[in-house]
């Protein structure tokens, strides 16, 4: 009997494999609303934020493979498409400083991101790779930049090899940060051609039209038809020149396919602080604040 070599299944479109975006029942706003039923804000927060599809962020976790497998498995069990954020680069948030941390070394990061991709496996998913990683260069040495580009390229290779039904997007900053031509060069150096494309406006406030215009300029400079997604979680009122818990912002349109990009997504969790700053000076980065959430609902 002649045994033919086994070839991997062709990659499939995760949007076509699922019936809408996954709503995480344990997101920070949903959990807060569930745990505070007597609070007058709870029902509004659950209705406007907690019940919506929001990306889940994953950081340093020695069991990241099983954590990701469980999360994507829960979504797959509902035939829904989960959105995940890989956020564990060593020296992350080099310029902003509010969300520092990450893996202890490049080798630890490679182990982590490899396990992350393997945890998804063949399940359908969307992954945003390392927000801000390609925007922070002005605070880094050339050696640090080269090291970071190597880690990001490795990350793209892991999703390409281990997560065939995942659309992965390297983060490409936002419309007000790095020139499109510069960002295109950085994306190319970080392995963007190994994956679906790039993301813009993660955790920021630029309008969808501003973000798509910027992203299309990046695509023009990349020289090939890369796809992109836009974070619309807090861009309903646009940008006011501040990035850290600014007042007067509003929720944007909820997750959808299309809308001027491949997808519009809530990548940042609305109501989660950017740091000890702005209208939440006593709320550390990554912590949910119900007052921030209500202000985003009301646009105040």
From TrEMBL:
User: What is the E.C. number?
Assistant: 3.2.1.-
This protein's superkingdom?
A: Bacteria
Q: Which residues form the active site?
A: 132
Q: Which residues does UniProt assign to the signal peptide?
A: none
The family database entries (Pfam families) matched by this protein are listed as: Glyco_hydro_6
Has UniProt tagged this entry with the keyword Disulfide bond? yes
Keyword Disulfide bond listed? The answer is: yes
Q: Which InterPro entries match?
A: Beta_cellobiohydrolase, Beta_cellobiohydrolase_sf, Glyco_hydro_6_CS
| Keywords for this protein | Carbohydrate metabolism, Cellulose degradation, Disulfide bond, Glycosidase, Hydrolase, Polysaccharide degradation, Signal
Q: List, in alphabetical order, the Gene Ontology terms for molecular function in this entry.
A: hydrolase activity
To which protein family does this belong? Belongs to the glycosyl hydrolase family 6.
Protein name, UniProt field = Glucanase
């Amino acid at each position: 009997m002649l045994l033919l070599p086994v070839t991997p299944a062709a990659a499939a479109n995760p949007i076509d494999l699922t019936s809408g975006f996954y709503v995480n029942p344990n997101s920070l706003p949903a959990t807060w609303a569930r745990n505070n039923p007597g609070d007058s804000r709870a029902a509004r927060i659950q209705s406007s934020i907690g019940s919506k599809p929001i990306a889940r962020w994953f950081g340093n976790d020695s069991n990241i493979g099983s954590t990701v497998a469980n999360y994507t498995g829960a979504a797959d069990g509902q035939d829904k498409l989960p959105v995940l954020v890989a956020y564990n680069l060593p020296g992350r948030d080099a310029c902003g400083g509010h969300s520092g941390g990450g893996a202890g070394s490049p080798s630890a990061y490679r182990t982590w991101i490899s396990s992350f991709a393997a945890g998804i496996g063949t399940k359908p998913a969307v992954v945003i790779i390392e927000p801000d990683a390609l925007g922070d260069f002005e605070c880094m040495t050339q050696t640090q930049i080269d090291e970071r580009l190597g880690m990001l390229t490795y990350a793209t290779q892991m999703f390409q090899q281990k997560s065939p039904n995942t659309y992965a997007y390297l983060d490409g900053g936002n419309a007000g940060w790095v020139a499109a031509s510069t960002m295109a060069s950085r994306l190319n150096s970080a392995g963007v051609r190994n994956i679906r494309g790039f993301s813009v406006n993660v955790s920021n406030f630029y309008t969808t039209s501003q973000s798509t215009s910027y992203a299309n300029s990046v695509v023009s400079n990349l020289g090939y038809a890369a796809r992109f997604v836009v974070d619309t979680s807090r861009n309903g009122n646009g940008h006011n020149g501040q990035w850290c818990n600014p007042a007067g912002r509003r929720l944007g349109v909820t997750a959808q396919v299309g809308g001027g990009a491949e997808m519009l997504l809530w990548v940042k969790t609305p109501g989660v602080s950017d740091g000890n700053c702005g209208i939440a000076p006593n709320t550390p980065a990554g912590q949910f604040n119900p007052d921030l959430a209500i202000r985003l609902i009301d646009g105040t």
